[in-house]
Write a structure and sequence with these properties.
- It contains three helices and no strands.
- The chain has 67 residues and is an all-alpha fold.
- Helix 1 crosses helix 2.
- It is elongated and about 40 Å long.
Length: 67
Amino acid sequence: MKIGVSLPDELIAFADEIAKRRGTSRSELLAQLLEAERVLAQTGAYLDRHGWDIVDDEAAWRRYQRQ
């Protein structure tokens, strides 16, 4: 899906630099960054729900991610 986003020139220049370095497009870079943010949000929600001591249970974490 296409969307329009307004960003400061310095962030666009930074995004272009990073995308070029990674050999990808600006759009793909932004998609990767948003996906990383989603994983962080999932991790935070999981830890809030189950507590930090459950972090060692990788199988439970994987099941939670698939939900």
